[in-house]
Amino acid sequence: MSRVLVVEDERHLANGLRFNLEAEGYDVETLETGDDALTRLAADGPLVDVLVLDVMLPGKDGFTVISELRRNGRFIPALMLTARGHPDDILKGFAAGADDYLTKPFELAILIARIRGLLRRRDWWRTGELPAPQPTTSGAREEPDRYTFGKLKDKTVDFNLLNLEVRGQRFPLTLMEANVLRYLIRHEGRPVSRKAMLEDVWDLQEGTDTRPIDNFIVRLRRYIEDDPTGPRHLLTVRGVGYRFIAVPEAQR
After folding, report:
1. What is the CATH number of domain 146-251?
2. Topology annotation, domain 3-127
């Protein structure tokens, strides 16, 4: 039975979520503050499989909670809930390390579907087992969603398992980190504007703060680059955005 930790200070909503998630077969805990959530997740209690986290909490807010978890190497799948649906807030949640984001009020069926999706990705990452490949329209079977790059082919990103292997070391990725990297890889060798990334990766319109995009690139460089201060794969295109290079020219 999967365990869901709901961190929500509106008691009636927390109780409603507990009731409905338990009816779906989940083991559910509820807490009311961000500090309590961090304490619970740092303790040696029962394993939490999914975190459902409100943004506006007493004490440490949801953004701070998820940031601290990721900084401490805790990659528990996290779904953020908020009444703040402004694009900047959504980007801020993803930049902090959230895997998904749901704006209140929401349909219960959508919340449950999002939780199931997070659990599937968690299971793929833990076991290393991919779901069975699905037939394409031509009847052929798709290959696992992996991409290998670098002169020595020593860097591999697996978009299904949400991990990046660099020189034998594995880095778990959040869903949005993987989506950003996938988008840049699809446009390998070509400059990609921040505006295009906002629209195509996050489905947000121009005018939204683009700084969270820069934060994603900084994190990805820490994983990928030999020297993040002198990147060779994730290049800055001044005044435009970024460009991905699979094999840097100096290594060819």
Report:
1. 1.10.10.10
2. Rossmann fold (3.40.50)
Task: Return the sign of the alpha-carbon dihedral for residues 229, 245, 176, 204.
Answer: positive
Q: CA-CA distance, 230 to 44, in Å (whole number)?
A: 40
**Partners of 51 in the β-ladder:** 5, 78
0.70 exceeded by pTM: no
Question: Which residues does 169 contact at the CB level (< 8 Å), separation at least 6?
Answer: none
Q: Are 96 and 8 in contact (CB under 8 A)?
A: no
Tens digits of per-residue pLDDT, 183-229? 999 999 999 998 888 888 877 765 666 777 888 898 899 999 999 99
Q: Is 146-251 in the same CATH topology as 3-127?
A: no
Sign of the CA dihedral running 222, 224, 229, 233? negative
**What tokens were used for 236?**
């800055």
* Interatomic CA distance for residues 11 and 140, integer angstroms: 50
